[in-house]
Amino acid sequence: MLLKDKIAVITGAASARGIGKAVARLFAQQGGRVAILDLDEGAAAAAAADIGPGHIGLACDVTARGDCERAAQEVIRRLGHVDILVNNAGITQPLKIMDIAPENYEAVTDVSLRGTLYMSQALIPHMRSRRSGSIVCLSSVSAQRGGGIFGGPHYSAAKAGVLGLARAMARELGPDNIRVNSLTPGLILTDITGGKLTEQMKTEILKGIPLNRLGEAQDVANSCLFLASELSSYLTGVTLDVNGGMLIH
Ligand code: NAD
User: Fold this and answer.
1) CATH for the 7-242 domain, from 3.40.50.880, 3.90.550.10, 3.40.50.720, 3.90.850.10
2) Which is catalytic among the residues 105, 118, 155, 234?
3) What is the pLDDT of residue 197?
4) I need a labelling partner for 1 at 20 to 30 A (CA). Which of 32, 47, 198, 230 fits?
């Protein structure tokens, strides 16, 4: 049991086939208690109930600072404390550079980048007071290779921003014994693509993956467990690629 008695907050974890839900399930299997935060309270609560008793689901739009603060306080009140935060909520859009309208830019950067900032800010004082914490941020291979998988340039920019934010937080929070690390998944089979990923696109992408398969949410969850748990006790500010070898560099 790698997370016995640990409490974890996971944003964007209500999506049934999503990375956040897979992380929540794995953390629960490892003895952790999980708070699933997502836009819809009913969906968050149902996802929490689905992974077992003792977990909770709360409504939280990570782009709203007040939501993040309220959710953080409620988790602390109901579960006692928080050891782990996984900044997982994110959306994408397959747009070309000239098609990105202001509302597209705002939607995509707000969820990944502003959301990571606000949710971290909501829990950092608590983690500081306990002199203990592990924060995992979901970036993407799109940040490293400039897209070309599914999301548009605004998605690449948002996810590159997440890497910078995570590294800066790691530097600032290290003395408080709070570790901050990032995951950069390749193409993972979830519903984030909203049915717009064609078989032809998958075949093209597969040609560039040495392990010769697309990723599963479980692949990312396994890596997230490593970064969240004490297995990675001397790691902070790292970027862990979870992409089947798509970006060997
Ligand atoms: P998903 O669409 O299955 O799940 C995303 C979840 O985020 C949904 O439950 C959604 O309701 C929630 N969400 C959206 N906006 C929100 C907001 N404002 N506040 C709170 N929750 C919100 O996506 P996924 O594929 O599981 O992606 C999870 C994370 O991994 C995202 O940050 C994504 O960018 C990143 N990622 C995914 C892939 C991939 O190929 N699937 C690759 C690299 C990185």
Assistant:
1) 3.40.50.720
2) 155
3) 86
4) 47
